[in-house]
Write a structure and sequence with these properties.
Length: 117
């Protein structure tokens, strides 16, 4: 298997930027959510880029795809957290729609990249 330099992968860079946006938005969550939804969404969003990076060092394409699958599932987890945050009125509808649209694009990129391996 050809090793991938994760820093050069567009999906990795996009996942990093997405994490920064989620961190910025989650600072507005109530303080009592620090160990609840705030922690959960932050762990999920960082898991996306972390799994892309870790998978890029795999010895096989099959193993890399497994890490990409985990990254994709983390992306879905972020979307769910955003929907919960919206229902709890921790975020505005417009912000959540933009963030979910970005998560959808990242999901499509991960799926497409995985198929190309």
């Amino acid at each position: 298997m050809k090793k991938h330099n994760f820093r050069n992968l567009k999906i990795y860079r996009r996942a990093i930027e997405f994490a920064v946006e989620i961190y910025k938005h989650s600072t507005a969550f109530p303080k009592e959510e620090l160990y609840g939804l705030t922690s959960q969404i932050r762990r999920a969003v960082t898991s996306i880029s972390l799994n892309i990076a870790e998978g890029s060092g795999s010895n096989s394409e099959r193993e890399f795809k497994r890490f990409l699958e985990i990254a994709l599932r983390s992306d879905y987890e972020v979307m769910t957290c955003l929907e919960i945050a919206l229902k709890l009125k921790y975020c505005g509808k417009e912000d959540v729609e933009k963030l979910i649209a970005e998560a959808d694009e990242i999901a499509a990129m991960i799926a497409g990249f995985s198929k190309s391996l």
